[in-house]
Design a protein that fits this description.
Layout: H1 4-10, E1 22-27, E2 31-37, H2 57-75, H3 77-80, E3 83-95, E4 104-115, E5 118-127, E6 130-143
Antiparallel strand pairs: 1-2, 2-4, 3-6, 4-5, 5-6
Length: 144
Amino acid sequence: MFDIISIMDALPHRYPFLLVDKITEYTPGESIVALKNVTMNESFFQGHFPGSPIMPGVLIIEALAQAGGVLAIKTEEEKARGKLVYFTGIDKTRFRKPVLPGDQLILKIQVLKKRRAIWVLKGEAFVDGALAVQTEIMAAIMDK
C-alpha cells in the first residue's frame, strides 16, 4: 500500500528512529496496518539486553505512534501540509509478549475519536498472531 519512501514523505523520522517499514492496509480516517521487521542489527539491542535481546517496550509504543502519524497525515493530507503529528499521551498500555530479533511486528491502529487536530487511537502490536502490546495513543497535528 505505502512503501518506505511514502512513509518517509509522511514522517520526519529517519534511521535509526524510523520504526515503520511498510503500510499494508489503510482506510483514511479509520485505520492503518503497518509492519516493522525487527532485526538483530537494531542499535538498541546492543544494550537491551546483551545476551537476551528484547525490543524496548517504549520503542514498540513509538512504532505504533509512527503508524498512527502516517494515518493522520495521509488522512489530513491537505490540512497537514507542512505540519507534524506530535505524540501527546498514552493510556491503558499493556505489554503481553516480548519482541525479539527476527520477529515481524504487525502494527494495527484504529481511530477511536477525532476532534479537530486531536486524534485518539487504539494501537495493537502483534507477533506471529499473538498480541504483544496494546495501548491508546493521543496525538495532535500541529505547526512545526
